[in-house]
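PROTEIN DESIGN WORKSHEET
SECTION A - STRUCTURE
LENGTH: 257
TOKENS:
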């Protein structure tokens, strides 16, 4: 029924199912566009969604969508052929990122613009395909990194939500079924499956030296000191005590309403 192999395959499905059920990520007759970047997380996400499509008591559709940045080193053909072999519904959207980054002189800090444009193109594809939800492959370690980035930049106590309703009603609801899955489980599972080599990001060195990678590594360091760090992190994010935070009485009243 499901292609995923490896000792963590069942655990990943279980955690994804728990996330879907706890946060109400998938409903009857949903039409889901799943972002397929070509990385391990997105391939596993697609397999998990198709697994639940077969066993869930409700009906929903899954369509894979890839953003093609136009770099020669991005192996779009390999991703496409894999989707065809799996008999997945598959679409692509393209943008000439090299040209756009050069025009804006952002070759040394490309991630912000690339992220916004990629998300925008996926929103457009979702609208074109009449998909009401967009599934992304962020995992627990991504949520932890985003939490610390927001905290340390003074942007608030926040992270990527498993379910995020859009401010713009024209945009799809974002769901993250792998939000409870630690990255090491995904890495191990990827090593036990024959996913295609889509190629690394052209700006891999920028990514590796950035804040997000630093805070991912910090999660590993904290786990060495606190063995239950990741499960405690999940528990704490679901147990907010506003009266013990530095917020004004007016905002505290809003929380209590």
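SECTION B - SEQUENCE
RESIDUE ASSIGNMENT:
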């Amino acid at each position: 029924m499901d292609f995923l192999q490896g000792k963590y395959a069942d655990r990943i499905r279980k955690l994804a199912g728990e996330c879907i059920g706890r946060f109400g990520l998938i409903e009857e007759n949903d039409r889901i566009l799943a972002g397929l970047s070509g990385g391990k997380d997105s391939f596993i996400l697609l397999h998990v969604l198709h697994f639940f499509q077969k066993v869930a008591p409700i009906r929903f559709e899954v369509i894979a969508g890839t953003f093609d940045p136009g770099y020669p080193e991005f192996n779009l053909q390999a991703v496409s052929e894999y989707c065809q072999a799996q008999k997945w519904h598959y679409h692509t959207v393209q943008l000439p990122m090299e040209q756009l980054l050069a025009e804006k002189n952002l070759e040394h800090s490309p991630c912000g613009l690339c992220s916004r444009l990629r998300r925008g193109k996926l929103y457009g594809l979702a609208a074109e395909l009449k998909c009401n939800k967009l599934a992304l492959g962020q995992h627990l370690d991504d949520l932890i990194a985003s939490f610390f980035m927001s905290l340390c930049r003074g942007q608030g106590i926040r992270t990527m939500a498993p379910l995020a309703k859009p401010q713009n009603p024209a945009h799809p609801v974002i769901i993250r079924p792998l939000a409870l899955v630690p990255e090491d489980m995904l890495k191990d599972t990827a090593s036990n499956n024959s996913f295609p080599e889509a190629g690394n990001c052209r700006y891999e060195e920028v990514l590796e030296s950035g804040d997000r990678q630093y805070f991912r590594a910090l999660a590993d360091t904290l786990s060495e000191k606190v063995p239950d760090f990741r499960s405690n992190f999940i528990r704490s994010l679901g147990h907010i005590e506003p009266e013990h935070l530095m917020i004004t009485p007016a905002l505290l009243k809003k929380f209590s309403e």
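SECTION C - NOTES
The beta strands are 31-35, 61-68, 90-94, 133-135, 163-164, 173-175.
The chain has a mean pLDDT of 90.
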